[in-house]
Please model this.
Amino acid sequence: MDVTVALTVNGVERTVTTDPQRPLLDVLREDLHLTGAKYACGEGRCGACAVLMDGRRVLSCVTPVSLADGKSITTIEGLAQGDRLHPVQEAFLEEGAMQCGYCTPGMILSAVALLQQTPNPTDEEIVAGMNGNICRCNGYVKIQNAVRRAAEKMRR
Ligand code: FES
Ligand code: FES
Model:
């Protein structure tokens, strides 16, 4: 039976009436037309679908939309302030930390969550914090550099 879920997405209150078990990713992409979060493995193994829920990273492909009821969701579309990119977005651009870009929204949101918890991470903490986000283009060195650069920017 469908239920109505009320959630805030990128600062905007939204309601959707749907199967409560439907993945949050499907609702974001298909109902709310926010296609930044990507579908890849569909089973919680790659991080392409990562979004923030009340500031914490969740894998939206394995998160039933009912769990988002009353929560605040941030997708890649909600990170920039107008024309001003989030420091993590800036750092990814400056380091060229993307090739095909398919993993990038999930990488950036995972980095945001990491840096909110650990503003001055060691390289080991960056690797551990980004563990679970897979880049099929193997851009890990530049991604790690971007997270380090973003941390510096955010501490300034
Ligand atoms: S698509 Fe969600 S973790 Fe891979
Ligand atoms: S840039 Fe292609 S999957 Fe990461």
User: Anything to note?
Assistant: The chain has two domains: 3-78, 87-155.
